[in-house]
Amino acid sequence: MNSRNFMQPYQFKNGLVLKNRVVMAPMTTMASFFNGQITSDELAYYALRAGGPGMLITGVAYITERGKGFEGQLGIASDLHLAGLKALSKTIKQNNTKAILQIFHAGRMTNSKILRGMMPVSASAISAERPNAEIPEALSEAEIHTIIENFAHATHRAIQAGFDGVELHGANTYLLQQFFSPHSNRRVDQWGGSFENRTRFPLAVIDSVKKTIESFAESPFILGYRISPEEFETPGIRFQDTLKFIETLTTSGIDYLHSSIGHIGRIPLNEGHDQTPIIQQISSVINDRIPLIGGGSVQSPDEVQRALDKGLSLVAMGREFIREPLWVQKVEKHDENSIRYRVSEVEMDELKIPPAMQIYLNESFREVMDFTTDNTKPNDRYLRQVAPMEGYEKKL
Ligand SMILES: Cc1cc2nc3c(=O)[nH]c(=O)nc-3n(C[C@H](O)[C@H](O)[C@H](O)COP(=O)(O)O)c2cc1C
What we know:
Elements: E1 10-11, E2 17-18, E3 22-24, H1 40-49, E4 55-57, E5 61-62, E6 74-75, H2 82-92, E7 98-104, E8 121-122, E9 137-138, H3 141-160, E10 165-170, H4 175-180, H5 195-198, H6 200-216, E11 222-227, H7 239-250, E12 256-259, H8 278-286, E13 292-295, H9 301-309, E14 314-317, H10 319-323, H11 327-332, H12 355-362, H13 366-369
Parallel strand pairs: 3-4, 3-14, 4-7, 5-6, 5-7, 7-10, 8-9, 10-11, 11-12, 12-13, 13-14
Antiparallel strand pairs: 1-2
Bound molecules: flavin mononucleotide (FMN).
């Protein structure tokens, strides 16, 4: 008990201070309006969960119409989204929780129905290895530059809307990852081929976002980057490629790196011989040069502390904050016995889970939610297999 430090403040190098080291992981609510505007259902969901964690990362927002990934996704593609985004940042920033907006372009991980007739785009015209995946259009040189600008404009809007930072969603198979991946990127120009060329797009996005922050942010504003450690297609990103990329990202000017895995203790799944946990290997490469955020199946205060003790700077919890919005407040009140680790379907209204998100959790994500009526499953099921929340369906 005495050696716990997760409730102590954390200061980023740029001066931003978090009141504790607990982060709510980004989770899409599927509950925005058809045009990407925030809804009052979402504001109520975030209001209940804000105030406890040091930092809350929003569900991912699309930066341009053609980059929209799901129905009911939040948008930051137009100034028309600003009013709603201001309400969102104000809602999250209660009781000194910092508000980080996650942003992305879905690339090929969307479809022409969601895009209202437009075809998805990606680095190359290669479809994802998923049922019913459409063949995306390969981006032209000019379109690549426009998307880099779209990321900068979205960041400017996030600053105007009062957020404390943005997180670039370079994980879970979306466009930033698609450029790095030798599966989705078969280009033979400066944006594809060698390691240097495949990292050019993510680094150009980081650069343009950084310049935007330098030009417009009047108080410390954070730039985070989320990565997935490996892909399962051949060709595809292997963990050793990711470690090399992390070395590059560490010196790229980002304020933190955030790993996306379904279990904090997971080992690389593509490398049979490698038994060293992913987080431990990433942490060794970073070597304290920038903060590392990690998580995956973390639920209890002891698990949060163990994760910090293993070299993480901040610990992110996703599903646990859906089930238990008052996790931090209960720890503060020494009332840990009342923290809930399972959720009943009939509690979802009381927990302010938007109806559209309830459908999603009940259907697409049912197996990951651990409803009280489900058979008990061990919480370590994503230790040796990829989790659906990582954007892959493959079970190893
Ligand atoms: C309903 C739901 C929506 C999610 N949406 C996002 C998202 O928008 N962006 C993202 O990076 N990860 C997303 N994730 C993944 C989580 O951020 C997190 O990495 C994953 O759930 C594992 O952590 P956990 O075991 O603490 O839930 C989502 C997960 C869930 C359950």
